[in-house]
Amino acid sequence: MPLIIARSVPEKISKILICTGGETQSLENIRTAGRFLACIPAEIQLLHVMSQLALRLDSPDQDLLDNAESAIARGTREGRHFIQAMEILRKAGIPETITPKLRHGLVIDEVIKELNEGHYDLMVIGSHYHQAKKPLLEILLEDIAGQLIGRASCSVMLV
Predict the structure, then answer these.
(1) Among 73, 86, 87, 154, which residue carries the largest CB count within 10 Å?
(2) Residue 51's domain is classified under what CATH number?
(3) Contact in structure between 54 and 159 (CB atoms under 8 Å)
(4) What percent of the chain shows pLDDT beyond 70?
């Protein structure tokens, strides 16, 4: 069940940032969020943050230079994810005005920068906690949702 943390609540929600992690669970989060957001006539921005460093040796150099449009045009993993996510949102009843955005850097820093630069009324994020099998990994894994909730200046919908 989604949870909304309300802060700086405007008279009308006109701009929404939906954050996506690029994996299968993110598509489920988008499907759930879409059902709730379809009744809100707002501008939708779909954000994915990818690393500023190649995570695999066989990653094309162009991946690190892509914006959302070029990732979609080149059919990269991120581009295909954007296409799937936008299709899910449209099927949920959100109009064609969905703008994909691709940023490169540290997830929390880039999402907060986007929030500040874009002046959003609502941010939608997923929360899927992965319990590590080893205690040391547990310490090293970030609580991204918790940090975003704490640092966001607008209301947050947690899916």
Answers:
(1) 154
(2) 3.40.50.620
(3) no
(4) 81
Q: Which residue has the higher pLDDT, 101 or 137?
A: 101
**Going by C-beta distance under 8 Å and a sequence separation of 6 or more, which residues neighbour residue 41?**
95
The single residue listed with the structure tokens 């064609």 is 96
Range of 97's domain? 3-158
**Contact present, 16 and 45 (Cβ < 8 Å):** yes
pLDDT reported for residue 2:
76
Q: What's the pTM?
A: 0.84
What does the pLDDT read at residue 25? 84
Number of domains in the chain: 1
Distance CA 133, CA 136 (A): 9
**Nearest CA-CA partner of 86 in 120, 50, 58, 48:** 48
Mind listing the pLDDT tens digit for each residue in 127-142? Answer: 755 555 556 555 545 5
